[in-house]
Amino acid sequence: MKLALHEVGDGDRTVLLVHGVMSSADTWRRVAPALAERGYRVLMPDLRGHGDSPHADEYTPDLLAADLVESVPAGVDLALAHSFGAPVLALAVPGLRPAKIVYSDPAWKLGATSVDEVREFAQATKSATAESIRQLCPRWLPEDIEAELAGYARWDVRAIEWLQSDRDLIPARAEVPSLVQGAGDHHLVPDELAERLRGRGFEAVYVPDTGHCIHRDDLDGFLKSLEGWL
Question: Hey, which end of the chain has fewer CB within 10 Å, N or C?
Fold first, then answer.
């Protein structure tokens, strides 16, 4: 599938930003200009079933990864993926061949309870309001809340059907220089996982006082943790 591809900036270096499920490229609304100011051409696809990309009859990480390879130029200087975008990007690495990778609070493996919670939340997105998002994410700016509501309205709730607690999508090794950026709550990247990833060749850091959407909770902290990678 050819994905809708949004672009900001005209720098000499190229960065690919991959959103997670339930969202869209608009999650990078404040990140993209900051990277463009640093000399990047910023590419932001909408995954299948999200944003301006078509809905589909089937959704799997492998299919979403194949869409990326089909839609994005290979050889970007940096690829950065958030949440469930991380397993999609990891599967696409052989075809995309990025020079460096950042996985921001990756959702590579969830327990059964977490899977049930995600499935329940997925349904709730369709009735979400600005106030309900504000209560869950008090540090978000109004423009982030607006972007999230727009993403919720457009995504296909079937896009989460592939999620299973027994599927482990943690990469076996870092294929290229790779950073794992964990949220300050250590929920999806607990200390044990960070150590295991370091043993597989990844660098792992945490951004203090942040939840799952690090780039929205603390944009400055998000960017600061990428020093040496941008």
Answer: N
